[in-house]
Structures are given as structure tokens and as C-alpha cells.
Specification:
This protein is an all-alpha fold and 183 residues long. It has 2 domains: 97 residues, no CATH class; 71 residues, no CATH class. It contains 10 helices and no strands. Helix 1 runs antiparallel to helix 2, helix 7 packs antiparallel against helix 8 and helix 7 runs parallel beside helix 9.
Length: 183
């Protein structure tokens, strides 16, 4: 894996270091550890201004970086998610867009869609906007704010979205409530 951009470094930072080898001659080896990938993201500017060739080919270079990080959350849990939340802290501190849409959804919409209450609360505490509307023309999901989007998803998700709904309701009532990250 070429580590030429923030996208690739995020994949490594979010990997489960217990299941990866750092031997570059190994079939599944990484050149750097997840902690070093995080350090590079926190220390240097260059990864944020590059988009690797493989990502250009698949067309994700326009994806806001916060969405890329958010999509990686929850895959490996534990220390992986802690590192990814550190990447999110870096995204916020660098002033990268939080409310920018990609394929009709913002990071707040995706946190709701993926039923990730911790990510949602993080976004709301750091400037995520619940009033931005989805942009999915010719779909029942078009022009919905976060609360309306949740209501549509609740109808389709029979297992429930209680934690996400609690976060949205708490934010509606007390938007400055302190954020507590639990792992």
C-alpha cells in the first residue's frame, strides 16, 4: 500500500495492529505501524494535499476527508477507533470541512445512516450541522434535515436507532453538552 496521502494513512491508522505484520516482505505487511500512520497525519501537511493514483482511478478524491475517516470507524474497534478519533481531532483542528456533502450526504447524515452514535456526537460537538439537507434527487431521501433523515431510517431499520436518536434529541435540547468519548 502506497502511503502517499491521508486516505491511505487513515486505512493504516484504523487497522487492527494485532492482526497486521509490519514486515514489508510479507504478503499482508505494512511498511509502518498504525501509530506511525497516525503520527504522520498529525505532524505533516502533505498527506492532506495529495490524492493517490488508486483513489483518483476510483474517483474518491472529491470525498471530504471527514467522511473517509467516519466510514472507517467501527471496523476494528478499540485502539483502532481511538486512533481514528485522533485523526478526526486533526481534521477538526486543521479546519477541514465537516458539513460538506458527498453523494448527497454530510458526515452527520452518514453517522446516522451507519447508526454510529459516538461519531454523531463527536460531529455535533465539533460543528456538525443538523439542518443541512440531503441531496438525493428522485429519492425519498431528498431534502431531509438530520431529524427527518433519522425518521425515514427508523422506519426501515427494525432493530432500532435508539442511541443515535438520543444523541440527536440531546443536541436539539442542549447543543453545548460536553462530549464524552467512550471506548
Amino acid at each position: 500500500m502506497m502511503l502517499e496521502d491521508a486516505y491511505s494513512l487513515t486505512i493504516v491508522a484504523g487497522s487492527n495492529s494485532d492482526e497486521q505484520t509490519y514486515n514489508p516482505y510479507s504478503k499482508n505487511g505494512l511498511f509502518i505501524s498504525p501509530n506511525i500512520a497516525l503520527w504522520v497525519l498529525q505532524t505533516f501537511d502533505y498527506p492532506y494535499s495529495n490524492c493517490g493514483e488508486k483513489y483518483k482511478v476510483v474517483g474518491i478524491c472529491d470525498m471530504p476527508f471527514i467522511l473517509w475517516v467516519g466510514r472507517a470507524l467501527g471496523r476494528n474497534g478499540g485502539n483502532s477507533d481511538k486512533r481514528l478519533f485522533s485523526v478526526l481531532d486533526e481534521v477538526v483542528s486543521r479546519g477541514l470541512p465537516i458539513n460538506q456533502s458527498y453523494e448527497g450526504f454530510t458526515a452527520v447524515h452518514e453517522a446516522i445512516l451507519f447508526n454510529n452514535a459516538v461519531y454523531l456526537e463527536y460531529l455535533l460537538k465539533n460543528g456538525g450541522d443538523t439542518t443541512v439537507k440531503t441531496q438525493r434527487p428522485n429519492s425519498e431521501l431528498d431534502k431531509l434535515n438530520s431529524y427527518q433523515f433519522l425518521e425515514i431510517l427508523k422506519l426501515k431499520n427494525k432493530s432500532g436507532m435508539v442511541a443515535v436518536e438520543e444523541v440527536l434529541n440531546r443536541y436539539r435540547e442542549m447543543p453545548n453538552k460536553p462530549f464524552k468519548q467512550d471506548f
